[in-house]
Amino acid sequence: MTSRRSEERANALADKLHSTAIHLLRQLRKEDDASGLSAPRLSALSVVVFGGPLTLGQLAAAEQVKPPTMTRIVTGLEKDGLVQRLDDPHDRRLTQIRATSKGRNVLAAGRARRVERLATAVRRLGATELAELVRGAQLLEEIIRSMRAERTEGRSHRARDSDAERRQRRTM
Amino acid sequence: MTSRRSEERANALADKLHSTAIHLLRQLRKEDDASGLSAPRLSALSVVVFGGPLTLGQLAAAEQVKPPTMTRIVTGLEKDGLVQRLDDPHDRRLTQIRATSKGRNVLAAGRARRVERLATAVRRLGATELAELVRGAQLLEEIIRSMRAERTEGRSHRARDSDAERRQRRTM
DNA sequence: AGGTATCGTTAGCACAGCTAACGATCACTC
DNA sequence: GAGTGATCGTTAGCTGTGCTAACGATACCT
């Protein structure tokens, strides 16, 4: 039973999370230049490094991006010698993406640099606040997971049928 | 006294906040098509609506963006009839940006639509969890504020001197 | 073998971010 | 008052990210 009151609070919170995420990323983007890696590239590289070799399609899905977009990101990373494209011997349509040792090194450095400012600020928190923020991040992560799930199941209860919706459905 | 242990936790948290923000915005971006307003435009419009009339430069600063970028965003909003450019009678170099009534209406609708998915997910939380998330958002907001402040003061303790740093300093 | 599906790429669009350079205006000084 | 320098917004041009549409290559399946 969602009361009028708690619904408003949920809306306000959603709104704040939205703008907060925007501003956080705008701040962090400023550190990108230092590592020479943009956010999408850094994020993709991270998946490749930690997620082992995987196909371009899998990588695109993991990053919630369409294949053409990931093609370009990988091309950029490859040009910098951070990842390799490898032919899959079993299915030659696939191209496996693997991190090079340079990629692993750069990731460690770049990632550290990128989060440094954030981590510095986070370190100023007391233990209690840190725990609270960890909890908040955890909740937000679950929420995002549930949002993603919502997109592929139980669509019928959703009323509107915008372009975005149709496109989404088409590409499923 | 920052222990080795808590430093690691801070790094891990910073890392998680980073990727979480990326994924949250990627999800929300999918709703943009529905409102016809991209995230930067929606955000700028929001500032104009709630922050009253303000100059383009102030708007750019508020959105942490360079003036040329804001010029284009405002041009787009103006083309859609959501904001107006007004000459300042006291200083004719300035252009005041003001929201139209259409802009106010569209903001309400678009903003609601954009956060709808997020709000829906948020509403599934229990009261306790909601409070926890509110607290987390609040902490994160403060952290971002402190990050921004750090950029303009006490720069000396920062060791590296990258292109990004230099550019930042130059444009201060 | 032939048709269909899948994968990655290419081409082409829109948008957001930046710097550099410029014109217009203001403010200050001589 | 005239000139000099600062400030504001715009324009031009670059890079990068995201998308769809269309295509070639390969695999699968009957």
Task: Please explain how this structure is put together.
The structure is a homodimer of 172-residue chains. Chain A has helices spanning 4-35, 39-50, 56-62, 67-79, 101-123, 127-152, 163-170, and strands at 54-55, 83-87, 95-99. The first copy, chain A, is mainly alpha-helical and 172 residues long. Chain A has a three-stranded antiparallel β-sheet. In chain A, helix 1 (4-35) crosses helix 5 (101-123), helix 2 (39-50) crosses helix 5 and helix 3 packs across helix 4 (67-79). Mean pLDDT of chain A is 77; it is low at 153-172. Chains A and B meet through helix 1, helix 2, helix 5, helix 6 and helix 7 of A and helix 1, helix 2, helix 3, helix 6 and helix 7 of B. Chain B binds a DNA duplex (30 and 30 nucleotides) through helix 3 and helix 5.
Write the topology of this structure.
The structure is a homodimer of 172-residue chains.
Chain A: H1 4-35, H2 39-50, E1 54-55, H3 56-62, H4 67-79, E2 83-87, E3 95-99, H5 101-123, H6 127-152, H7 163-170
Antiparallel strand pairs in A: 1-3, 2-3
Helix pairs in contact in A: 1-5, 2-4, 2-5, 3-4
The structure holds a DNA duplex (30 and 30 nucleotides).
